[in-house]
Amino acid sequence: MKMINKKSGEAVYFNPIRKNGKDAWIIQGIGSTVVIGRDRQKLKSRTFAQYAQAEAYLARHGFESETYR
Fold first, then answer.
1. In the predicted model, what is the mean pLDDT of residues 15-43?
2. DSSP notation for 6-58
3. Please, are residues 10 and 4 in contact by the beta-carbon 8 Å criterion?
4. Domain of residue 57, residue span
5. Rounded Cα distance, 23 and 57, in Å
6. In this predicted structure, what is the pLDDT of residue 66?
7. What is the arrangement of strands in the sheet containing 22-29, beginning at the earlier edge strand?
8. How many domains does the chain have?
9. Which of 20, 22, 23, 63 could form a disulfide with 58 if both were Cys (CB 3.0 to 4.6 A apart)?
10. Is residue 69 scored above 80 in pLDDT?
11. Within 13 Å and on the Cβ side, how many CA atoms surround 9?
């Protein structure tokens, strides 16, 4: 699913994945968008073990799902 931060114009993909036999969720930056890691490092993608953690990250950084019209 594509998520957009309307203030900064950044966009990320937010998708469920299967990692080591367990469900996980990944956030991947689109284009030059940087995903902030655990220690404030700049990453291209970040994986979360729990959906609530990923959802909180997206809300904290102002991302919301894009609506197509």
1. 93
2. TTTTEEEEEEEEEETTEEEEEEEE-TT--EE-TTS-EESEEEESSHHHHHHHH
3. yes
4. 2-65
5. 17
6. 78
7. 45-48, 22-29, 10-19, 2-5, 64-65
8. 1
9. 63
10. no
11. 2
